[in-house]
Amino acid sequence: MNHIKNTFKLYILDWKRIFKNPIATLLIIALMIIPSLYAWFNIKALWDPYSNTGELPIAVYSADQPTSFQGKEVAIGDEVMKTLHTNKQLGWQFVDSKKELDEGVKSGKYYAGIYLPKDFSKDLLSFTTGEIKKPTIDYSINEKINAIAPKIADKGATSLQSQITDEFIKTASSSLIKVFNEIGYDLDSNLVSITKMKNMILSTDENLDTIDGYTKQVIELNNKMPELKEKLAKANEFVEYIPKVDEMGEKLVALNDKMPQIKEQASIILTLQEKIPEIQNAGKQLAEVDSDFDSIEQTMNEGIDEAKSGLKIIQQVQTALPDIKELGNKANDLAGTTKDGAQQLKDALPTISTSVQLTLDSIGDVATTTSSLAATIREAVSDNQLTPEEKTAIKEALQNFSNNLAAQQTALTNLAQFLTNLQTSAGNSDLQGIIDQVNQMNSHVGTLKDRIDDLYGKVDSLSVAEFEAFLQSIETAANQVASDVNAINVSQITATIESVLTKLISTIDTAQGLLTDAQQIDFASLLSSTEKTVSNAIDILEKYQKQLPAIRQEIHDANTMLNGHMDEIVNGINKGADLYNNELPILEEKLGLAANFIKNDWPDLEKEITSTLKTVDEKMPMVESALTKATDLINNDWPSIKTGIQKAAKAIRKGESEVDLGQVIKLLKLDANKESDFFTKPVDLHTNELYPIANNGSASTPFYTALCLWVGAVLFSSIATTDYFLKEKDKLKYSKREQFSARMLTFLTMGLAQGLIVTLGNYFLLGVDVRQPVYSVLFGLLIALSFMMMVYVLVALFGNVGKGIAIIILVLSISGGGGNYPIQVSGKFFQMINPFLPFTHAVNLLRESAGGIYWPNATKDIWIMFLLMIVFGIVGTWLYPYIEVQTKKLTKVSHESHIFH
To answer: Does residue 240 have a pLDDT over 70?
Structure first.
């Protein structure tokens, strides 16, 4: 760490010394920029070397004399001169004589000269006479004037030669072939018909066996016409069924529309699957009820007997009530008698409690009965229509339900009256809350009855939607009644009644006010309402008693069915759940596809079937007639036609073997323009440019950029010293390696500056075409670091010898680095050293960023440059302390020559 710290101290000291000295600062800045100027001037000079060739003077003179061809004067030389007047590729100078042209080329006034002799057009058309003589163009060039100009002028002459060849074909051939056109035109106008007839005969002859097969098929088809007509009749019958198909399609679409509802309803199977344990438990409970039904029946009978006993007590009290009242004038007897009546009423309390419970239970069944009734009605209207029988059945069910509700209203009225009389007799309001609940329940039962009666009167006129609305309102009212029943606590009613009667008896026992209180009790009303409540309960119990045999049988049958088939039921539920989870989605998908077909595809298909069958029916007579005629032709005329075709084909083949009419006409009638264009350019060249670069200057940029970076490193090492100067007292503070490393950082900083200036200047000042400008800068910095490191280490270790080595590498790199010319056109020596020159990989790396990066190549060059920098840095830092003394001796020897500094 101390070594690094000392190195950076010396590095910072370097730059402080530079910036304290204005001359040093100016020189450093100049050394940063000068190498870039070297690159920029060369790149700009080579930007487009052929852009100014229009100023390159080339003398042209034509002595060509016109010649006659087919009665027309042809002067190809004049056409060439006219074209060159519009050609700006070279600086064409049109002189007046052959002598002027030759003198101008000799003197250097013109770089080259082109002369067309007087027989140029005549020789060019000599092929028409049978004595072919190729015309000659005289091309003179002065090669001593410039190294590149002759090549440019030669390119112009070659272009002129191609242009004259093109002009010859377009002029001479078009004139020659025009005569042939006139000869072959009339024949060609009928060639299509001639060729068509010939081809038809030959083709027919070649396919006679196939045609024979077709004739047999035509005869077979004609024989099958009765069968086809019969099938067509059946197809027409299918059309009559299309309305039924439409009807079934509508039902299919309706079923698909209801599929979400059906799926939702079918999902109950999953709930059943979850409740299988409960179903199995219910089976066990049902079996217990079936086995204990005798006990249930006995309990029912005992309940009825108990209720009748209670009723009998109440009736006895009612019978004795007139006597009690007669004795009431006797105060002492009245209290005792009243007390006895109250006590008897209290003894009948279990019967009264049971009666109230039965009344409420009967009303509590309203919700279940309503749901069953609604489900029955929904099932009846599910098909969107009601038969008279279904309407009658619905009305009958509604009427029975309404009558039942009326009876329940009466029972609730009697119960409320009983509780009111009892509360009045007790002289308190303990039962008022229960009375209000009973009255509210009675009101809700009335609401339900009104809705049932309203539906009864509109059964004949309601739609399905209106039915559903009525049923929902009825179910809401029924649920309200069930909620009222659940809100009443019968045990609380019994306790309250018992409390009221106890208070009543207590009141009678009390001497104070005994007579007055007893006289205020209205036993007649109390007993009357109590009798009605108990009687209603007895009616309900006897109703259930009559149903007990049927209930017993139903429970037994249910027990037998449920427990006897429990495994089948459970398996059925599981299978149903499996069908719901696995098969129902498939059914839903297929039903959706079918419904989609019915809605979208079937109408068009139906239309096509109808129209197609109509067309077939209309055309069938014509088809039948045509087949009959074709069969007659095949049977009677085809053998002779076949023989004639064979003879004609034989004659045509014989004629074609001797004369090709088509080739004769083709030669006589040529398209002059098309033919001449084909001879001029028989092949089109398609060029596919990979990694295109806009101009020659941009293409040369990688070479001159790398060259300027090496030159910059050599130039800086020639001016700047690699030795680090310290005072004697400071030399002991810093090691040789620290001094070497600090000066190396200074050199590398200069390299980074040079690389940054030249790469940014290329892009922003010159506008060089660079596809990857960011990578161009990064690659330039890497190359600058590598080059500067190599030059610094060579100079630091070997002094002037190191500078010489750097210059030798520079010289070898110019020819062996493959910068401007492919290395394959250089000598074998340069081809051999090319892979080992740092310059080669630097130029290649810069070319990658210029034209477009191919990373396998770029990665290899990056590693090479990076490794060169690291290896030279490590070797130089390690070796410097050991070789410094020898380097100074070598430098001293070179100084003794008084030539090298």
So the answer is: no
